[in-house]
Amino acid sequence: MDLADQPLADDIRACTLCVDREGCGALGTRPVPGLGPKDAKVVAVARNPGFDEDSSGKPLQGPSGKLFDRMMHFWGFPRETIGTVNVMGCFTKQPTNRPPTELEIENCSPWFERQLSWFENKKVVIAMGREAIKATVGHCASKLDEIVGQTFAAAPRPGRKLGWVVIPTWHPSYLIRCETGSPLDQRRLAKYREYEAPQIKERLAQLTADRDSAENSKRPRQLGLFGDDESAW
Ligand code: SF4
């Protein structure tokens, strides 16, 4: 049973709540619901769809999606085992994938909460970027540098069932930009590869440790964060 096949996903695809406002449905974009199996122990939360996600109707596609797949594989949770949900469901096409406004996030929060709740067995939410952290932890006052890889309690929200924790991380699109970015970006990427990504792997293993051995035995061989062939990234 996958979220993308549920009536909830169809309702999101038909949503026109923001259609009268610039930057959302009025520009020919389409809402992109989350996906993933009902029994997912890990759910990844991203900000909102970009061009590739809007074109395909699925979250985390294109180059960012490819790196995301590598990250999840390295962490021991291949894409088909996890949930993926956006805080805001539509591509903010103009000017170019701008951050969603507070109003857009508020409009979409009932969809976000219902999708997150659909994954009833989740133990960990991987929050990718500031908007995802705010939507799950309730705030993001600290610099991301200081909190990537840490664990945080989920914030209470009306209708939200707690019992899961949040691990903030960089969004894969930022990590891609870091490769050719400023010296600061490159230092962040090096730190992420060396310390934070392995730390997240360890925490995910601990926080989901109650999974039975049969499930563990289905896991594929784990690759390094950037695969056996680092030049592929
Ligand atoms: S951003 Fe959310 S609430 Fe607004 S039209 Fe898209 S799916 Fe609907």
Structural write-up:
- The structure is a single chain.
- It is globular and about 45 Å long.
- The chain has helices at about 5-15, 50-55, 60-75, 100-120, 130-135, 145, 170-180, 185-205, 215, and strands at about 40-45, 85, 125-130, 150-155, 165-170.
- Helix 7 packs antiparallel against helix 8.
- By secondary structure, it is of the alpha/beta class.
- The chain has one domain (about 5-215): Uracil-DNA Glycosylase, subunit E, CATH 3.40.470.
- Iron/sulfur cluster binds near residues 24 and 90.
Main sheet makeup: 5 strands, mixed
Helix content: 25-40%
CATH classification, class level: Alpha Beta
The proportion of strand residues reads 5-15%
Query: Please, what is the CATH homologous superfamily?
Result: Uracil-DNA glycosylase-like domain
- When the domains are counted, the total is 1
Keywords:
233 residues, alpha/beta, Uracil-DNA Glycosylase, subunit E, 5-stranded mixed β-sheet, 9 helices, binds iron/sulfur cluster
Q: What is the topology?
A:
Elements: H1 7-13, E1 42-46, H2 51-56, H3 62-74, E2 83-86, H4 102-118, E3 124-128, H5 130-137, H6 144-147, E4 152-153, E5 165-169, H7 172-179, H8 183-207, H9 213-217
Parallel strand pairs: 1-2, 1-3, 3-5
Antiparallel strand pairs: 4-5
Helix pairs in contact: 7-8
The protein binds iron/sulfur cluster.
